[in-house]
Amino acid sequence: MAFCPALPLCRTLGDSLLMSSLPTLPSRRRAIAALVVVNAMWGSSFPIVKSMNLQIDQHFAVTEWTASHWLRGVSAAWVIGIRFAAALVLFLLLYRTTLRRVGLPHVLSGVAVGTLFFMGLLLQVVGLGTIPASRSGFLTSLAVVFTPLIGTLIRRRMPRVPVILAAVLALLGTAILTGLFVWDETGIGIAADARQKWTLGDSLTTLAALFFSGQILLVDQLGKRYDSVAFTPSMFASTALLAFAVFVIFSGQIPETSAGGWATLAMQPSFYGLMALLVVFPSLLAFVWMNKYQPSLSAGEAAVVYTMEPLFASFWAMCLPVWLSVWCLIDYQNERFSLPLVIGGTLVLAANVLALWEPGKAELPPRLNATA
């Protein structure tokens, strides 16, 4: 093949154009503060979604314990579909300037991120149908371990030692927060419902954690290359489309029936009021900020920050339910302040301080041997 003398010049020009098109990332401190707020908004979604599930139970004349797994899975897909379709509409109305910057790479990136996110959500919901909430919360938090492990395999570069230690500390804190460990007169032990044999639900929830890890890594990689906020519309669209597809395909399997079906439920003022809260804060704002600010941190650091979500969920669960129960006419009581919340929350906060402590001018972690 003949050598082209212009090839080195073309490469240099192409590299300079690529570098000039790279996004300007927000400062590290601003990114940390923003992601803490993101976790606070995500945490609020737990009592909101719980209230919506109780309304769905009332509508179909079932209880939390008698509802079929089909109803749980299909209703989750229905709520996810409406949630992210509405978030997409709001994004198109409020972020018109960003839309002008959306190109094919942003669309494809958003579809990839949205697909991983939806698969994680779906597997988590389906798995929750057969395992206790404590096990589900703990297994989902394994993303804090999977993320640096997968990142190490892909990039052949070890995370910083503080990030590794923080991941272990955050995992322990999450186990306490989610009730995996209990305190009684005999001392500290593992919760009885957490000692059941490994089931399909455990496998599905662990797989969900892997998908969430993939989402974190993908936002980290692509967000450092492109304008990550421009991922958001296609991320919302792909998540909504996949959710509606699951709803359409499997809604016929639901054994429960109700007068008026899903449309009657969606028209209840209390239901679409809850949906409005879910769309604006834990969906639109939270994911726009996640896409914008996460690339300023490493994937391992971001995974540790995201372990603050169950801490905020516990906080909101002590404040919101009584107000939501009055508004929605459901039986939903506030959770109580507890010792596991203090201990688990302290460990999670300590893990974040450890992982996010500015390394200063420390040397980069050594690259792994490419042949290892």
Task: Give your account of this protein's structure.
By secondary structure, this protein is mainly alpha-helical. The chain has a domain of 218 residues. It contains 16 helices and two strands. A two-stranded antiparallel sheet has the order 1-2. Helix 7 runs antiparallel to helix 13. It is found in: Cell membrane. InterPro entries: Diverse_Substrate_Transporter (IPR051258), EmrE-like (IPR037185). Keywords: Cell membrane, Membrane, Transmembrane, Transmembrane helix.
The tally of strands reads 2
What coarse outline follows from CA principal-axis ratios?
globular
Q: Compute the average pLDDT.
A: 85
**Tally of DSSP helical segments:** 16
The SSE string, one letter per element, is HHHHHHHHEEHHHHHHHH
Rg, nearest Å? 22 Å
Portion in beta strands = under 5%
What separation lies between the terminal Cα atoms?
34 Å
Report the uncertain regions. 1-20, 361-372
- How much helicity do the residues have? 55-70%
Biggest sheet descriptor: 2 strands, antiparallel
The assigned structural class equals mainly alpha
Transmembrane segments: 69-95, 107-131, 137-154, 161-183, 231-250, 270-290, 311-332, 338-357
Membrane topology: Multi-pass membrane protein
Main location: membrane
Keywords: Cell membrane, Membrane, Transmembrane, Transmembrane helix
